[in-house]
Amino acid sequence: MNKPLFGMAGFPPNFFDSPLGKKRDNVFKWAVEQGIDAIELQCTYGIRMTDEQAEKYLELAKEHNIYLSIHAPYYISLASLKPEVVQRSKAEIKKAFILAEKLDISRIIFHPGGGFDGDREAGISRIIQALNEIEKDLNTDKVRIYPEIGGKINQLGSLDEIIKICKKVKYARPCIDFAHLHAREMGSMDSAEKMIEVLKRIEKELGREILEETHFHVYPIEYANGGEKRHRAYGEKKESDQISLFGEEDEYLPRARDYIMALKEMNLKPVTICEAHDTQDEGAILMKKIYFEK
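Structure (tokenized):
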């Protein structure tokens, strides 16, 4: 990337409330008018886009210079002990790759998820095996798979586990969801310095080139003892006590400014997708404004 891109997950309420919001195809024009650079298409409940719609979205994305990525279905479970579940999950990933090619997309994000029956190491090994088994069926020269950090402690997807997958699967790249990491580590991402530590760890373990291809999700989050509870909006005040091992703040974390400071310290210009609750567009615009402010 020669410049950072800031985008939103899916279609925010502000779009549907606008004059353009009566037709979903208008989201590309609307996004450009707001100053948004990217949209992560939410295929979280299945890959169901028709060829006609994909062709239209590709045309509109190119016309308005919007960068697209795909979030694959939540129910993918490559770590499952049930062979039929793994086969269905492999099929969904293949469908996501086919759609990505139709849309000229190079990034597919997925959750490593659950189904591993308590043995985390064995679960990660099954994910690695499954991804390597289907590589021959995928266009991995152009499209990459992005395992995402999981928000709940009982889910696969710690920072260590994401790095391990990316070491063992040559077409895998990290999706660092700083909110999920903050939640599963009970409030760890409370400063730019903590985020820089994560970025340096990726650089050390996977190399600078992979760090520059890393995909980011950033937004505030509420968590409980098990990790992620719900997504929040930037500036939203806490409604209840947040148990934290790292300190207390009035607002839900992580902060946009901390993230931007970390990017600049590491000289990164990545794709960043905001998943703030009902304000993903506003969060993307905020991060972009902070990045480019004088």
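The chain is about 40% helix and 15% strand. The chain has one domain: 5-292.
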